[in-house]
């Protein structure tokens, strides 16, 4: 006699299989929708350099392109139309894919009280903007041009600050990887319509470092004055911009290097000159 199949039991297996298949499909759908939602970050088209643009180059539209960047990863004053940057002069070497901003091309000039600011400063979160003298502080006999890299410091450069305490021996790198926001202009030169000599820089520093630098600039310690000298950093040693907070991770370099060694040299003395030229 043939054995009859157990139809109720097969029906149970079928129902369980359908339930498991539905659960698997729901899990896949949830995973896919989660991935889409994570990747669905709002973007905006921002003007960037197609390739590296050398400092002093007159910018033309063919040097620029639009790049879709996630909101919050670029400065608020970034250009959104290549025409906004066309005709401007690159104040510094612009790396490929760097967003071009209004503040990058805005030169601070002697202002009139009550005059509105054209663009807001793009200040890193947790930092403050601080105006510092163009290389001369506390010693009017020093020429500012010699103390500030011949006025080659431009907005968006990064500098180190050497501090000579004056009344105590010793010069050291007291501040490193300081971002320059603006290069100011001489009031007299700007008023006369002449080429303005820089007399100040606007830099950004963490709040505690801004206090220290202010104390150094305004220090009137007996026996000497504090002297500041600025040096330009190569771009390879700049701290990296964080997409959320900006340049909040400065790159500190050791000041040690190749020891100064004097090679063989014969001093030039009056006696030597007499022997050579028979004076």
UniProtKB/TrEMBL annotation:
Region of interest called Disordered, as start-end residue ranges on this chain:
242-266
Q: Which UniProt keywords apply?
A: Membrane, Transmembrane, Transmembrane helix
Enumerate the InterPro entries for this protein. Pilus_assmbl_Flp-typ_CpaB, SAF
Please report the stretch or stretches of sequence annotated as the SAF domain.
Answer: 44-106
Q: For this UniProt entry, which segments traverse the membrane?
A: 12-32
State whether keyword Electron transport applies.
no
Q: Which NCBIfam families match?
A: pilus_cpaB
Annotated protein name in UniProt: Flp pilus assembly protein CpaB
């Amino acid at each position: 006699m043939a054995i009859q199949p157990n139809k109720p039991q097969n029906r149970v297996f079928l129902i369980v299989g359908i339930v498991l298949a539905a659960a698997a499909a729901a899990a896949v759908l949830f995973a896919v929708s989660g991935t889409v939602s994570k990747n669905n970050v709002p973007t905006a088209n921002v003007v960037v350099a197609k390739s590296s643009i050398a400092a002093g180059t007159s910018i033309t539209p063919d040097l620029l392109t639009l790049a879709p960047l996630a909101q919050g990863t670029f400065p608020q004053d970034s250009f959104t139309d290549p025409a906004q940057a066309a005709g401007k002069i690159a104040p510094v070497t612009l790396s490929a894919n760097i967003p071009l901003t209004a503040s990058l091309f805005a030169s601070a000039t002697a202002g009139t009280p009550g005059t509105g600011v054209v663009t807001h400063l793009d200040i890193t979160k947790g930092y403050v903007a601080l105006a510092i003298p163009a290389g001369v502080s506390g010693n009017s006999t020093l020429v500012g041009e010699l103390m500030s890299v011949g006025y080659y410091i431009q907005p968006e450069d990064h500098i180190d600050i050497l501090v000579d305490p004056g009344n105590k021996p010793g010069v050291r790198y007291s501040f490193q990887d300081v971002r320059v926001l603006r290069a100011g202009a001489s009031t007299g030169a700007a008023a006369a319509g002449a080429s303005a000599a820089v007399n100040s820089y606007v830099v950004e520093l963490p709040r505690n470092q801004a206090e220290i630098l202010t104390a150094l600039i305004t220090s009137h310690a007996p026996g000497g004055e504090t002297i500041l000298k600025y040096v330009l950093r190569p771009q390879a040693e700049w701290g990296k911009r964080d997409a959320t907070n900006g340049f909040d991770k400065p790159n500190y370099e050791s000041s040690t290097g190749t020891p100064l060694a004097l090679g063989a040299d014969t001093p030039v003395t009056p006696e030597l000159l007499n022997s050579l030229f028979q004076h």
